[in-house]
Design goal:
By secondary structure, this protein is an alpha/beta fold. It is 38% helix and 20% strand. It has 3 domains: 71 residues, Arc Repressor Mutant, subunit A; 129 residues, Nucleotidyltransferase, domain 5 (2-Layer Sandwich), CATH 3.30.420; 147 residues, Nucleotidyltransferase, domain 5.
Length: 378
């Protein structure tokens, strides 16, 4: 026998529908809500009053209409009703960002600090997080949590590093940070974090292979709008696929890995910045052009191999993404065509739509999404 829907469930459902309608449309009138959701004006009015009282929505000016007479009041959500903080832990620095419920940047800082698997380091980072929070005037009650983007593999519950060779942090627990912070904390693999940002700005994205091309190489497989973790938590760790005999030693202890051929460490010379390299490349500097050609050749071989396994869109992200142009994609595709047995168009090669701050923002987004999923439950 089917259970009937209770009045309380109907009330909660209406509240949720109205909040998410406002969230999606940014700025709406009562009439818009009533018409599009097919709810009575009294129902809309009472729910808006309750949401406004709880601090979730606010009056935000007026709606311009083509009709003569008094303009309708506009409603929007309160974007910073709750915020998430993303922190990227790197060998020589830490990046952090605060984002609102739209995933938009509130503030961002970078500070230099060498990673050490010691309590003094964790306390120092947490003190910086607290200073960062205070500087933007956000009370503790509005912080959803801290996501730490890490260069390594993370346990399914997001609380422990199960493989952290780059920072020598295998076994590290979020407890090392939580003991100094009054907020929920979680780890996230940096490549997965970047892919989550990509999904956020492209909600229509269903299937793709996301390549995070930064100082280190990383990847994430997107299937049906979700990140695939795999049976043992190391799905899409393409950086450790062996591409050649011998060659440069990878941080995993083996040589010839994709990491050693397709990361920015393989492209840039010591102490060379991305800005300097691409400025010289675009100005026709021959040594940069030669290095770029070798890099794209190795990247093309890698993408072709992966594309033969998973015939889907490939998104080029990471720190490389902001520097790429259509000519680069065309050259990369020409190199792929030389390796592939299929005559396929270049439409599967894409540049990330979120090339800036994607890792730090992506680390905060799971907290934002979880809040949005349950915001009107109470």
């Amino acid at each position: 026998m089917e259970k009937s829907i209770t009045p309380d469930q109907i009330k909660k459902n209406n509240r949720s529908l109205i909040y998410h309608y406002i969230y999606k449309n940014r700025k709406v009138s009562q009439q818009d809500i009533s018409y599009d959701l097919r709810l009575s004006r009294p129902t809309v009015t009472s729910n808006l009053s309750a949401l406004e009282k709880d601090g979730l929505v606010q009056k935000n000016g007026q709606i311009d209409t083509e009709f003569v007479g008094r303009k309708a009041a506009a409603y929007s959500i309160v974007p910073d009703f709750r915020i998430g903080i993303g922190v990227e832990i790197l060998q020589k620095e830490v990046k952090m960002i605060a984002v609102n419920l739209y995933g938009e940047k509130i503030n961002r800082i970078i500070f230099k600090i060498f990673f050490e698997n010691k309590d003094s380091y964790f306390k120092n980072v947490c003190d910086k997080i607290l200073e960062f929070k205070d500087a933007i005037g956000i009370p503790d009650s509005r912080i959803l949590g801290i996501g730490f983007a890490m260069q390594g593999l993370v346990s399914p519950d997001k609380q422990k590093m199960i493989y952290g060779k780059i920072l020598s942090c295998t076994g590290l627990s979020t407890a090392s940070f939580r003991k100094h912070l009054p907020y929920p904390c979680s780890f996230i693999h940096d490549a997965e974090s970047a892919a989550i940002s990509e999904l956020w700005v492209s909600p229509e994205l269903s299937d793709a292979f996301y390549l995070s091309i930064s100082k280190h190489l990383g990847a994430a497989i997107i299937s049906k709008g979700e990140i695939l973790a795999g049976k043992h938590g190391h799905s899409s760790t393409i950086e450790h696929i062996k591409m050649q005999q011998g060659g440069t030693l990878c941080y995993c202890g083996k040589s010839g890995c994709m990491e050693t051929l397709c990361s920015l460490t393989a492209l840039l010379s010591e102490n060379e910045s991305m800005d300097d390299f691409f400025e010289n490349l675009r100005n026709g500097e021959s040594s940069c052009a030669k290095r770029w050609d070798i890099f794209l050749t190795n990247l093309a071989k890698s993408i072709n191999m992966l594309h033969l396994v998973y015939d889907t869109d490939f998104i080029l992200g990471g720190y490389l993404a902001p520097y790429l142009c259509d000519d680069d994609l065309n050259l990369l595709h020409e190199k792929i065509k030389l390796a592939t047995p299929f005559d396929e168009p270049a439409d599967f090669l894409l540049i990330s739509k979120m090339p800036e701050h994607n890792i730090t923002i992506g680390a905060a987004l799971p907290y934002i999404q979880a809040f949005l999923n349950t915001v009107t439950d109470s």
